[in-house]
């Protein structure tokens, strides 16, 4: 999901501005507001310096909200207000700060089901679902694997030329990737460590059995 979001970002008019990914399920609930909206020094115990916040750090660019269904309802309300008002209020500051970002959100859960179960706000859902894309798991689009692998390796080696020996893509395509694209990235990072120089061979591909 993040790779697709990065591609959307780099292909659009905001490409020269930040791409800021946030895993909504990885931030403790008590820190969500401060992490998203920022805070002023002294706003609470432990706030030893001003913090811009993840939303404002994406100014002019793209904010990618991964696993958005993991946000608690209390935070969903605040996120909805930010989307509607296009401004944030950092913790400890009275005035609103305008923000210009594009939002891309993703979830492995069915958000319509989450709305029906009362776990996701319906008004936020309709604010987010302007254009909806379904990204199938990697095992359902193995025809894309060679292009994905080349793009991932190019990013990992910062553009240094790396080639794949005959049979390497076939070895990669024989696996079903329960961990999806992130697992492919881990496999390729390991292969680069094992590779002799700038050539990745089939024997460098180590997968779980």
Automatic annotation (TrEMBL):
The keyword DNA-binding applies. Residues 1-193 form the Sigma-54 factor interaction domain. Keywords: ATP-binding, DNA-binding, Nucleotide-binding, Transcription, Transcription regulation. One of its GO terms (biological process) is regulation of DNA-templated transcription. The keyword Cell membrane does not apply. InterPro entries: AAA_lid_NorR, P-loop_NTPase, Sigma_54_int, Sigma_54_int_dom_ATP-bd_2, Sigma_54_int_dom_CS. One of its GO terms (molecular function) is DNA binding. It holds the Pfam family AAA_lid_14. This is Type 4 fimbriae expression regulatory protein PilR. It comes from mine drainage metagenome.
């Amino acid at each position: 999901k993040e790779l697709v979001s990065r591609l959307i970002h780099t292909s659009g008019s905001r490409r020269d501005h930040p791409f800021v990914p946030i895993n909504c399920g990885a931030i403790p609930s008590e820190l969500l507001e401060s992490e998203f909206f920022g805070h002023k020094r002294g706003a609470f115990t432990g706030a030893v310096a001003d913090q811009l916040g993840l939303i404002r750090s994406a100014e002019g660019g793209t904010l990618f909200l991964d696993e958005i269904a993991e946000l608690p309802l209390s935070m969903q309300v605040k996120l909805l207000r930010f989307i509607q008002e296009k401004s944030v209020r950092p913790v400890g500051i009275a005035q609103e700060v305008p923000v210009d970002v594009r939002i891309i959100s993703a979830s492995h859960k069915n958000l319509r089901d989450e709305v029906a179960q009362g776990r996701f706000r319906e008004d936020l859902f309709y604010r987010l679902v302007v254009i909806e894309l379904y990204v199938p798991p990697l095992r359902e689009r193995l025809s894309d694997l060679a292009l994905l692998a080349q793009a991932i390796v190019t990013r990992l080696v910062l553009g240094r030329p790396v080639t794949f020996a005959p049979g390497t893509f076939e070895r990669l395509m024989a696996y079903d990737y329960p961990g999806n694209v992130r697992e492919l990235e881990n496999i390729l990072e390991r292969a680069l460590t094992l590779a002799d120089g700038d050539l990745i061979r089939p024997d460098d591909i180590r997968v779980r059995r």
